């Protein structure tokens, strides 16, 4: 399911990284990611329906800090779930799940929907930058 989401053309257009080389490569990455001892990997289910997840939020513990990535399932785009998923993440952050380091998110300038979702969850614009030649913005929550 997650592999299908990340291979979706609109998802690819909003992603900094390359698509997985193969399903096997994605499966290996996914198993490594969900068993990682740091960060978080959350899948959200609207109305507690496991057969119809709304998307995922990841928090990766990197050298530059706690980096947030979000992906809304293609079938759920435009329903406000991105903001809702981020608000749940912020609630977990407020409970001390990630310690005191700020959450960071790099968002492509062209991705207005993602910027709105992060802002609605309380992230604030920090700075503009280019990532691999793509004009982007850094948003912070702390």
Task: Write up what this structure looks like.
It is a single chain. The protein is of the alpha+beta class. The chain has one domain (38-141): Aminopeptidase. Helices cover 32% and strands 30% of the residues. The protein has helices at 2-7, 9-13, 23-34, 81-94, 112-120; strands spanning 40-44, 55-62, 65-72, 103-108, 124-131, 134-141. The protein has a 6-stranded mixed β-sheet with strand order 1-2-3-4-6-5. Strand 3 (65-72), helix 4 (81-94) and strand 4 (103-108) form a beta-alpha-beta unit. It is globular.
- Give the overall pLDDT as a whole number: 91
How are the strands ordered across the major sheet? 1-2-3-4-6-5
CATH superfamily: Gcn5-related N-acetyltransferase (GNAT)
> How would you spell out the order of helices and strands?
HHHEEEHEHEE
Strand content: 25-35%
Binned, the helix content reads 25-40%
Strands, count:
6
């Amino acid at each position: 399911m997650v592999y299908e989401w990340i291979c979706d053309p609109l998802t690819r257009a909003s992603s900094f990284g390359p698509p997985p080389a193969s399903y096997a490569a994605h499966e290996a990455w996914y198993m490594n990611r969900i068993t990682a001892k740091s960060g978080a990997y959350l899948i959200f289910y609207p109305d507690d329906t496991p057969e119809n997840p709304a998307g995922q939020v990841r928090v990766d513990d990197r050298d530059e800090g706690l980096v947030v990535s979000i992906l809304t399932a293609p079938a759920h785009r435009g329903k406000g779930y991105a903001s809702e998923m981020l608000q749940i993440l912020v609630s977990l952050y407020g409970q001390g799940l990630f310690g005191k380091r700020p959450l960071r998110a790099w968002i492509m300038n062209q991705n207005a929907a993602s910027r709105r979702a992060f802002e609605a969850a309380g992230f604030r614009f920090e700075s503009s930058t280019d990532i691999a030649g793509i004009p982007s913005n850094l948003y912070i929550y702390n």
